[in-house]
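Please fill in the sequence for the structure shown.

STRUCTURE ENCODING:
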């Protein structure tokens, strides 16, 4: 038995995939042969969904057809929202996503069908229904009226509308859509690995994604964007933010939004994109305080710790500018990443070998 051990599996290749790779030499995020950052300049989230599910970027007609199909799948079983209403009122919307996923599974009459065709259909249904479950979990939490999608709004516009209660402007729709695109797929982070490990037992897609949402809830993974915004809200100026960060560093506290297991010595390329969208929103509002704070924090962390922003650091203030409740930041991450997660589960099911690693024993001696 090999005794090679790397804590956290750092640098260990655990799977072969045709879906994505973080090419650190070229500094590119590659999705089925396409550069994600370049895609963010010219394509929409649904284009990337099509790329992940079907293997190619969508044509205009395919994108329209995909949008129409998702609209047809938007009927969430009444029981799902009824179950969420029964939860204790201190739940997090990610708990609702996890619960809602399990309830949805009970409505799948072909639950044991692991074929690619069946799984792709499930993936599209989940992408259609998760925004409704996510947004209304928040409204249930706040004991507010439920909000359902409008037929004349796009997928991304509807998602944003259901969370805020206000129809977005074209600029807001575009920026939110790009954030979904950037969160859509990122090789093998903890939540994707969790989904593939669970799927390798030949369980259903819902079960794999239920495990994934549990993984993503942690603030060392998806929960970081919420933590970043709560931190930014503690102060109002760049100088105050620098002082806040210095205090955290002196107390050896972990500062969310900085560092990445893959981008060790550079800024997450997705963060560059969101930083420019933050600048655009600041220009729109005539208020650059959030950008000034973030840039000051970025400089300090580079100088003091050699750490650089990840996507969550700049996504958080962008979502704040879009009037999205903070508690929904990580649930948004999960909804957008569901496209990539489903692609990984499908790939795992289609060429499966159950994950069964070993350990290095460091316990008491024995004979």
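FILLED IN BY: designer on duty
SEQUENCE:
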């Amino acid at each position: 038995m090999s005794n090679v051990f790397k804590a956290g599996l750092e640098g260990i290749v655990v799977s072969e995939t045709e879906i994505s790779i973080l090419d650190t030499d070229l500094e590119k995020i590659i999705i089925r042969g396409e550069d994600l950052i370049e895609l963010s300049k010219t394509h929409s989230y649904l284009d990337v969904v099509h790329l992940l599910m079907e293997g190619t970027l969508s044509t205009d007609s395919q994108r329209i057809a995909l949008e129409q199909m998702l609209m047809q799948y938007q009927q969430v079983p009444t029981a799902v929202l009824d179950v969420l209403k029964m939860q204790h009122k201190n739940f997090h919307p990610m708990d609702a996503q996890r619960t809602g996923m399990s309830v949805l599974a009970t409505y799948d009459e072909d639950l044991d069908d692991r074929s690619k065709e069946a799984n792709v259909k499930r993936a599209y249904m989940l992408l259609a229904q998760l925004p409704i479950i996510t947004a209304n979990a928040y409204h249930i939490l706040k004991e507010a009226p439920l909000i359902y999608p409008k037929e004349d709004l796009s997928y991304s516009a509807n998602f944003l509308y259901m969370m805020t209660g206000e129809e977005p402007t074209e600029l807001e729709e575009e920026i939110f859509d790009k954030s979904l695109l950037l969160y859509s797929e990122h090789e093998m982070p903890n939540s994707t690995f969790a989904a593939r490990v669970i799927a390798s037992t030949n369980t259903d897609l819902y079960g794999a994604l239920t495990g994934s949402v549990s993984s993503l809830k942690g603030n060392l993974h998806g929960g970081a964007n919420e933590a970043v915004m709560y931190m930014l809200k503690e102060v109002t100026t760049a100088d105050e933010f620098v002082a806040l960060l210095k205090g955290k560093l002196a107390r050896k506290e972990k500062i969310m939004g900085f560092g990445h297991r893959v981008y060790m010595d550079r800024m997450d390329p997705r963060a560059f994109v969101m930083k420019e969208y933050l600048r655009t929103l600041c220009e729109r509002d005539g208020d650059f305080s959030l950008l000034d704070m973030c840039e000051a924090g970025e400089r300090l962390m580079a100088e003091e710790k050699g750490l650089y922003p990840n996507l969550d650091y700049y996504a958080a203030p962008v979502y704040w500018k879009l009037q999205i409740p903070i508690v929904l930041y990580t649930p948004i991450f999960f909804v957008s990443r569901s496209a990539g997660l489903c692609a990984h589960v499908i790939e795992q099911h289609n060429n499966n070998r159950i994950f069964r690693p070993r350990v290095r024993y460091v316990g008491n001696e024995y004979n």
